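Hi, here's the filled form for the chain we discussed.

Project: internal
Contact: R.S.
Residues: 285
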Amino acid sequence: MDYLKMFLATTASLTTASALLLYKYQQKLIYPNHLVADGAGVPHDTPDLYDLEYEDLIIETIDHIKIHGFLCLQPKSRLNLQNETVLILNPNAGNIGLALPTVKNFHNSGYNVLIYDYRGYGTSTGEPSEIGLKIDADTILKFIENHEILKDSEVTLYGRSLGGAVAIYLASKNHPLINKVILENTFLSIRKTIPHVFPFLKHVSWLCHQLWDSETLITKVQSNVKFLFLSAELDEIVPPSHMKKLYELVEEYDYKKFILFEGAHHNDTPLYPGYWDIVSDFLDL
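And the returned structure, exactly as it came back:
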């Protein structure tokens, strides 16, 4: 009986500790904005290192956060033939300097490219949160809407991991400029991801207030938006079943495609053979 009491007491203590850990530190777990060599708030690589002309953007949000981004436009001669824009939405670690090879890929393919650091990342001010990142996204969409060139372009949202959740949020606003969405290794919700990433927290996942409920929001996107789902077979953070479920939730849409990359993991999916050909074919639709 004493052993049983000890076991129950230990279990209760561990559960309480797990609950406190998740509730108090969830924003640091979900938004590890310091997990880069230079940390947050430090200048990073710029597009000129990749021979790209760019505008260095500082855009202020309604709550007075300064969002830093890069805009790489196509030459005017090219814009007369094609005016399409890719908005890159990053995963939850790193900064926009680390995504410059992706910027170059899209720009070399003929697209305007806009990329920005979420609040608290790179040199953007503030601290990250779900509410804050959604305000950032709304602000960037309004910037596109009011830009003399971008306002007349067709916009593709390219979101990786957390960036996919941001993309789904923006797509659910049903702005007429958005006509394609590319999602890579994106989750149904943060709560449903916790048991996979932190198994010891699975019984207290309900305490997570950073929801990112993509499972619900994706059903609000208008049916004329085209979707491409890129999923890693061996994703150690987001179970491929999450991506498959998101795909199924848009089954009535104008166009959708699901690609499973065999042997790929969460962070190396873009390196797999055929990845960029698939993306290019989708953008050409």
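Let me know if anything looks off before we file it.
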